[in-house]
Sequence to fold (190 residues):
Amino acid sequence: LMKHYLEFFGLNIDGPYPYFHAGAATLCQGKTTGFTDDSFDQITSRSWEFPGGFPSSSALADPEVRYDSIGQFDVKLTVSDGVRTKSILKKNYITVDRCNGLAVHPAGPVFRIYPNPATSKVNIEAIGETSGECRCILLDFTGRRVVGQKIFPVSAGSTVSMDLAGLKSGLYFLKIQCGTYFHTGKLVIL
Fold:
């Protein structure tokens, strides 16, 4: 009965677990961004949908997509483990502007997360040109926040630590936001 309640409320307990991130979620018109499939639990196939992007669909694990129109665009990923199929839709995930004064971060990771796997703490090192104030949130595989928002100043080469004491072993996602830029990385806790 509990399983039916969880399914009714949209909580995925059987897998596969669809999840993804973009190298940059804010782009200049006509530019390309890369997407990374972070899904897990024996993924055998995937299908991306990029309304407003070129290409508009893909079956690659890490596709590159160009956006020629200004606006906000959804991204949908559907994954299968050969038995079950699950989808994730991020509404208005990609923002495209003319770039007249809009700061856009380069595609690709700007943070290094270590050690990974981690035990009692994890370090977050800025390795790109990001500067200013960032927020860090640790999510479990269902997307539920397990460690509250940590706000920290960051500049290239700086490192901040997050305490993981008391968390169960498993796969987590570390979400870092600096202004309009998002970086999401997988974190395994032993």
The longest helix spans residues 2-8. The CA atoms of residues 58 and 80 lie 14 Å apart.
